[in-house]
Design brief:
The complex is a heterodimer of chains A (about 140) and B (about 290). Chain A is α+β, with helices and mostly antiparallel strands. Chain A has helices at about 90-105, 110-135, and strands spanning about 5-10, 15-20, 20-25, 30-35, 40-55, 55-70, 75-80, 80-85. Chain A folds into 2 domains: about 5-85, Sandwich (ATP Synthase, domain 1), CATH 2.60.15.10; about 85-135, ATP synthase delta/epsilon subunit, C-terminal domain (Single alpha-helices involved in coiled-coils or other helix-helix interfaces), CATH 1.20.5.440. Chain A is globular, with a radius of gyration of 16 Å. Chain B is an alpha/beta fold and about 290 residues long. Chain B has one domain (about 25-200, about 205-245): Pyruvate Kinase, Chain: A, domain 1, CATH 3.40.1380. In chain B, strand 2, helix 4 (about 125-130) and strand 3 form a beta-alpha-beta unit. Chain B starts with a helix and ends with a helix. Classes of the chains: A alpha+beta (about 140), B alpha/beta (about 290). The interface between A and B is medium-sized, with 22 and 28 residues.
């Protein structure tokens, strides 16, 4: 019995289909949701999310949000979510270099925190894009 | 009566105006369609979020509800108002309607001795607040035709922290609701406290597990709803703006066409009158010579 998975952001519907499993990063660690999971409402972290459908794993970059799990229905209210092939790798790479540069300069605490968050986002984008590439080969 | 040359010049300039307004109408029509699509694209997120919130609000106990964005305050001393307008005019009575609604709201609140702080999204609203010397504490302008959510978060986070910090006891927004291409209605909505729909049509009854816990989930979840409501209102405002402008420009084009028709008639009449005159003069000249 598959799960009806729906991923929406404020700007669009990212995904809506039947899947077998979805692995997401939550604030308390990664969780995998299988059919007939107990009802759950949880805060999502930023990280990579994997959708598994008929044996095929598709990686997504997820940047925070919420997940509501009902027995056969999972809704992810994402702040931002990108499929691997939507990621602009060159841009993520530039963002990574830029963020590392800012971290090295050690400015105010706030700036440091911003740079760190930026770096994390860039790393996740790159990682998701990498995974996808490796699988293709 | 004006000379035929003057009338001819006038016709040419009116035709030029008609061409421009026609072009503007078409530009607005295509922008409006895109804006409408953007509005529809935010619906699933907002609807899902509202589902979760109404589900949650039914089952949380009053302890967890306290001090959240769901809890109404007993005494209301200060309110915040978010006014959403376009940056530009030339869109009929749209801006005036939104501003009139805002002005009435502010006066109403002041009559009840409540302080009002305003936030403006769009230049027109900002200029209005400055002109009428309202307490303007935040503004966002030049959002363009397809703003991203992150461009609009500043005001949402300000009003949320203002409410949490007891600076505001209620938060409202005024925007232009997009009903259809011909009708846009100024709308006043209360943003905070959030009022989950009370209709018990929701037949889903599930006891969630909360991670990390209910309090944390609520604390993170509720502001998202404010954010997306403001975002949606901005997008509806944009759709309204373009459809109002489209209609205004269509009217202008039609008026120009009528004007051209009238002027052409006058031109022909003047031309004919002057020909008649000339013929008369020649005839009477000839008659004078013969006589």
């Amino acid at each position: 019995m598959p799960i009806q998975l729906e991923i929406v952001t404020a700007e669009r519907v990212v995904y809506s289909d039947q899947v077998d499993q979805v692995n997401v990063p939550t604030k308390d660690g990664r969780v995998g949701i299988l059919p007939r999971h107990a009802p759950l409402l949880t805060i999502l972290d930023i990280g990579e999310m994997t959708i598994i459908k008929s044996g095929e794993r598709t990686p997504y970059a997820l940047f925070g949000g919420f997940m509501e799990v009902l027995p056969n229905r999972v809704t992810i209210l994402a702040d931002t979510c990108e499929r691997a092939d939507e990621i602009d790798e060159a841009r993520a790479e530039r963002a990574r270099i830029n963020a590392e540069e800012r971290l090295r300069q050690r400015q105010s605490d706030q700036d440091l925190a911003l740079a760190e968050a930026e770096l994390r986002r860039a790393m996740i984008r790159l990682r998701v894009a990498q995974i996808q590439k490796m699988r293709r080969q | 009566m004006a000379s035929s040359r003057e009338i001819k010049r006038r016709i040419r300039s009116v035709k030029n105006v008609a061409q421009i307004t026609r072009a503007m109408e078409m530009v607005s029509a295509s922008k409006m369609r895109r804006a409408q699509r953007n509005v529809l694209a935010t619906r699933p997120y907002a609807d899902r979020l509202m589902d979760v919130i109404s589900e949650l609000s039914l089952r949380i106990n009053s302890g967890a509800r306290r001090n959240t964005l769901l809890e109404p305050r007993a005494v209301i001393n200060n309110v915040a108002l978010v006014v959403i307008t376009p940056d530009r005019g030339l869109c009929g009575s749209l801006v005036a309607n939104v501003l009139r609604r805002s002005g009435r709201f502010i006066l109403d609140q002041q009559k009840q001795n409540r302080g009002v702080e305003t936030y403006a999204i769009g230049k027109r609203g900002r200029d209005f607040m400055a002109r009428t010397q309202q307490h303007l504490v935040g503004e966002i302008t030049k959002l363009g035709d397809a703003p991203k959510l992150e461009d609009t978060l500043g005001i949402a986070s300000n009003v949320v922290s203002g409410f949490r910090g007891q600076q505001y006891d209620e938060v409202y927004m005024v925007y232009s609701e997009f009903v259809n291409t011909l009708v846009q209605r100024p709308a006043l909505r209360r943003l905070i406290p959030i009022e989950p729909p009370t209709d018990a049509t929701s037949t889903r009854r599930f006891d969630y597990t909360y991670e990390p816990d209910q309090q944390d989930v609520l604390y993170e979840l509720l502001p998202r709803y404010i954010e997306v409501q403001i975002y949606q209102a901005i997008l509806e405002g944009i759709a309204s703006e373009h459809s109002a402008r489209m209609v205004a420009m269509r009217n202008a084009t039609n008026n120009a066409k009528d004007l051209v028709r009238d002027l052409t008639l006058t031109y022909n009449k003047t031309r004919q009158a002057s020909i008649t005159n000339e013929v008369n003069e020649i005839a009477s000249g000839a008659a004078a010579l013969e006589g």
